[in-house]
Description:
- It is a single chain.
- The chain is α+β, with helices and mostly antiparallel strands and 154 residues long.
- Helix content is 27%, strand content 29%.
- It contains 4 helices and 8 strands.
- The strands form 2 sheets. Strands 4-3-2-1-5 form a 5-stranded antiparallel beta sheet, with no helix packed on it. A 3-stranded antiparallel beta sheet has the order 6-8-7.
- Helix 2 packs across helix 3 (102-111) and helix 3 packs across helix 4 (122-137).
Amino acid sequence: MKASRIESGKVYEVTVGKNKTAMKIVKVERRVNGQLAFHCRNVNTNKDAVIVDEKRFLKESKTGKPATPKETMTKCDKSEKPMSGLDAAYKVLVEGGRPMKVKEIAEIALANGYCRLQGATPEFTISAAMQREIVQKGVDSRFVKATRGLFAAR
């Protein structure tokens, strides 16, 4: 977004690290070297920040908040209750019929709407749960670790 289009008092969607957040422009300041500095306030946390790179401004936010992970998640069918991450992983492995990496399992489960994992790293959530089940249930577990990084259904 061009720096000339960024106005004080408006809310914009801004990248902070790998995340997007809504920031309200409090003040626009021109520094001695001619560079613009945007004094912003995070809409969600009310923390102040100074942003000097206009490329971090993605677009003007109409609602005042960026799309949350809950709003962008794949929805499960309303008629059936969503599965747990473990149940979804087991279903993916049975349907696939081969050992898979956890990242692939999580992507397929979310894409097919088998479950809703709200964390930032669903593959780590599923991996930890599968490993925990293997340790706790032993030979009665639904999962087996095929090789390093690969899980399979029994």
